[in-house]
Amino acid sequence: MNITEERSTPWRVALREAIKPKDRTTIERVHMPALDPVYRSHTRLEEVNLGLTPEQAMQEAKRCIDCASPTCIEGCPVGIHIPTFIKNIERGEFLEAAKTLKETSALPAVCGRVCPQEKQCESRCIHLKMKKESVAIGHLERFASDFERTSGIISVPELAPSNGIKIAVVGTGPAGLAFAGDMAKMGYQVTSFEALHEIGGVLKYGIPEFRLPNAIVDVEIENLRSMGVEFINNCIVGKTISIEDLKADSFKGVFVASGAGLPRFMNIKGENLVGVMSSNEYLTRVNLMDAANEDSDTPVFLGKKVAVIGGGNTAMDSVRTARRLGADRAIIVYRRSEEEMPARLEEVVHAKEESIEFMTLRNPIEFIGNEQGRVTQMLLQAMELGAPDASGRRLPIEVPGKTELIDVDEVIISVGVSPNPIIPQSVIGLQITKWGTILVNENTMQTDIPMIFAGGDIVRGGATVILAMGDGRKAAAAMDKWLKEGN
Amino acid sequence: MNKIVRKVYFSENVVMFEVEAPLIAKSRKAGHFVMVKIGEKGERIPLTIAGADLQKGTITLVVQRMGVSSTKLCELSEGDFITDMVGPLGKATHIENFGTVVCACGGVGTAPMLPIVDAMKKAGNKVITVLAARTKELIILEEQMRQLADEVIIMTDDGSYGNKGLVTTGVESVIQRERVDLCVTIGPAIMMKFVSKLTKQYEVPTLASLNTIMVDGTGMCGACRVTVGGKTKFVCVDGPEFDAHQVDFDEMLMRLGGYKDIEREDMEKLKCASGIK
Questions:
Q1: How far from A327 is each of A78, A211, A307, A349, A410, CA to CA, in Å?
Q2: Which residues lie across from A79 on neighbouring strands?
Q3: How large is the angle between the packed helices A54-62 and A137-151, nearest 10 degrees?
Q4: Under 8 Å CB-to-CB from A476, ≥6 apart: which residues?
Q5: Which of A265, A295, A422 sits opposite B218 (nearest CB)?
Q6: What ipTM, to 2 d.p.?
Q7: Who among A195, A272, A293 is closest to B255 (CB)?
């Protein structure tokens, strides 16, 4: 059923007629219940956002006026049928709502939690034009998928009959999972290869439990397994096996979604002192290796004065983790002002509630250590904002002679990531940009080696979960077309 | 999961494992390493591959009992499984006909040196190995080394076997005796530092295989970073072998000691829990 047909089903027409659009727009937006900030800043494993109750969700769903041409869908990189799932919530058919989500999204419980909705679907909501708050699409998405998961009645999307064609996916992060889900639905025999010992990519090693519990990621992965997707961990395509090996094993298409795992450092003095590390190292130790758990063999420093350098979501995840691991002072150091921070607004608000300190318009220029080589201080340079650069963000400029020395015992560098070089280096003939990303046709995600498609951060550099998923979907549609046209 | 098919004690604390890993056996080259994890709560540790048997589909690892993870690994028996193993990782050793190559190895560093000696020899080099250990009991793989290298010089700290002295004494004796075109060194960081110092004096190009702390081993985290020629490099993807004369060994030693206190505590806990001495 297409979106227009869905909209004209009798139950939906009746719902629309029950409440006038004008009355719908006067309903106040629901507020996501959350754990108390003081309590949660000392508990590492409990999710901060508690989720909506069925009553709250149904009330919020009423706010959606079920537009004839819903612009919210255009704001969603995977094109979720947003009004359809919301109207199902309004009429109390929560499982139907979850089913609608799964038609286009491989990981709704994940996206409902970590998408920057304020920049995507919710930024296109009609309410904003009327100077009202947008419908809480993200909260509702999370509600529907959580309801399905806890109900124990998990639907498996309808699969096309198997066509016996073998497809390989490199990487099991959001791009790879979305691609695998779509290909499985179209009847392909999908094998996903993962370098680490756990499936899920950044969803497991990067995003902390308090924002995205691993158990939720595992349910979504189980769902893909039940659709026939096979997962092989501890296997690096480009190292353990080659693309040639895959070809010889009669794989007909390869989707590369190996991500942008390579952390950037600042190349300043003292950066290799003990206690200075990338956010990837810090978060991998804590999230993937469970290092803060007594039973885990992986160690982690438990800093008391922790500085995190950067202003993105990864920086927020790191600093909030440090606070939860017992830091008395957990500080964000960002070279621009708070307005320019790329992190989600919700994360910034949560961080502040958890007493994270924000030192903006400052940039570290040196780390200082003791005789054992452990970091003890950092030298910060004061910055001011200059003219906007090409991307429209105002450039930070040093204020001459204005520096300050801050005591720290742990520093986490979170200034961005670069594409993982393993596939670009190991596949001869693959076109790579000067940033190390794989060059693809933007419409099809196909590389100049026809059987290889690519998407997510390996194509974009560091971006978001949902953009990666959008690439996965686009690549699946294009690869299906390419294979059916007999290449 | 990778099955242990053979376990041999080289000495009380040095164990050789032959582990089923057909894909790694097929794709590994001299210089490559694997990451292994023992148990659900295990940590990921790097181990350099000491050899492979393509027919059996196995690789060889030599482990010295040092901390929690190596101890847990050493406690495994034939038929047991290594929970997680991934590889081959890192860049393979650059092999060509250099002329005369001196391979300086200490302790368990001898094991990963075997495939390098083999490959260097096959490329037409004259290979002289200097095998060093504290005492006679800790000299490992001497027979295998003798089969591959043109000459093997044994050094022990206490003189209990071969010549008395450190690995550097052995290397220096070769350099003074004949022209050496390349030196390769694998062993404890402190040993590689002194080999590097020595060969720098004589201007002998030297490769060191670095053994830093690692977490993922695939370039994702930078835990293994070292300064080489003034630039930060990741040992797991840019190495593990680097021009030894460019490596900041003091910084590397400092970073290796970063978790010493936590490691000591964890080791105490493991001893209490399992009754290991």
A1: 39, 19, 10, 19, 10
A2: none
A3: 140
A4: A178, A179, A182, A183, A186, A255
A5: A422
A6: 0.93
A7: A272
Give CA A370 to chain center in angstroms: 38
- pLDDT for residue B55 is more than 80: yes
The mean pLDDT of B202-223, rounded to a whole number, is 94
Percentage of chain B beyond pLDDT 70 is 98
Half-sphere exposure of A408 (CA within 13 A, CB side): 31
In angstroms, the separation between the Cα of residue B87 and the nearest Cα of chain A is 6
Taking the whole predicted model, whether its pTM rises above 0.90 is answered as yes
Query: How many whole angstroms separate alpha carbon B73 and alpha carbon B17?
Result: 10
* Confidence grade of residue B274 (pLDDT, cut at 50, 70, 90): low
Residue A22, CA distances (Å) to A9, A12, A137, A424 in order: 22, 17, 19, 54
Spatial separation of the C-alpha atoms in residues B66 and B77, rounded to whole Å: 18
Task: Name which of A196, A274, A421 is nearest B216 (Cβ-Cβ).
Answer: A196
Mutation target for A interface from B220, B231, B264, B274: give the one with most A CBs within 10 A.
B220
Q: Which has more confidence, B107 or B193?
A: B193
Tokens of B206: 């030297």
Pick the residue from chain B with its C-alpha nearest to A237.
B87
Q: Which of B178, B144, B185, B216 is closest to A258 using CA atoms? A: B216
Residue A103 CB: number of other CB atoms within 10 A?
Answer: 16
pLDDT above 60 for B277: no
Which residues, including other chains, have CB under 8 Å from residue A464's CB and lie 6 or more apart?
A115, A116
What is the H or E stretch that residue A99 is in?
helix A94-104
Task: List chain B residues with CB under 8 Å of A280.
Answer: 220-222
A contacts of B24 (beta carbons < 8 Å)? 240
Segments in chain A below pLDDT 50: none
Buried b (16+ CB within 10 A) or exposed e, A416-444: bbbbbbbbbeebeebebeeebbbebeeee
Distance CA(B161)–CA(B152), nearest Å, equals 13
